[in-house]
Design a protein that fits this description.
Chain lengths: 111, 109
């Protein structure tokens, strides 16, 4: 079974803090994704990566950056957290046909 | 982008009832997935079904790609089936998936 894990289920941070969200997959997938999910807005793609050190902007990249130094790990970085980044963050990975598998999610609250 | 419409938006079922969820999409796709989001927020893969019919226990799905729709069937529903069901579509050569707004299913004991 594909397994995607995320570093935290719940996270509370203060405005202006630097926040790291980590995602690890164990299926040797080339592609990894970061989404956020908000009520009424659905799932929105923030960034994705199709190979180590490669990244592409999704639909809402502003305020975020990403890092992929190893194939199994994809990090989402909030350089200076703001209250409007309070959300559910979901990581996913996929292989050749882009069948995506999701991690358990991180509920981030920025105070 | 691809438009994805799911219906109904909400569904309330009595335990043991059967139901059908629908997903319409606006373009020819070769990637279609159904997910169940559980109460803790995790998206669980149900089916990868760009065409044809698949069954997994009490769940089954059918995609008619030429007519641009997919159906998810839940039989003998249980309270654990409650949650939001999402349909997502895309192309093999495009990393993006377009998600529908979801169908919220509530199964009452």
């Amino acid at each position: 079974d594909v397994k995607v894990t995320q570093s935290s289920r719940y996270l509370v941070k203060r405005t202006g803090e630097k926040v790291f969200l980590e995602c690890v997959q164990d299926m040797d997938h080339e592609n990894m994704f970061w989404y956020r999910q908000d009520p009424g807005l659905g799932l929105r793609l923030i960034y994705f990566s199709y190979d180590v050190k490669m990244k592409e902007k999704g639909d809402i990249p502003e305020g975020y950056s990403v890092s992929r130094e190893k194939k199994e790990r994809f990090s989402l970085i909030l350089e200076s957290a703001s209250t409007n980044q309070t959300s559910m963050y979901l990581c996913a990975s996929s292989g050749t046909y882009n069948e995506q598998f999701f991690g358990p999610g991180t509920r981030l609250t920025v105070l | 982008g691809i438009q994805v419409e799911q219906s109904p938006p909400d569904l309330i079922l009595q335990e043991g009832a059967n139901s059908t969820l629908r997903c319409n999409f606006s373009d020819s796709v070769n990637n279609l997935q159904w997910f169940h989001q559980n109460p803790w927020g995790q998206l669980i893969n149900l089916f990868y079904i760009p065409s044809g019919t698949k069954q997994n226990g009490r769940l089954s799905a059918t995609t008619v790609a030429t007519e641009r729709y997919s159906l998810l069937y839940i039989s003998s529903s249980q309270t654990t089936d409650s949650g939001v069901y999402f349909c997502a579509v895309g192309y093999h050569n495009d990393y993006k998936l377009s998600f529908g707004a979801g169908t919220t299913v509530t199964v009452r004991a």
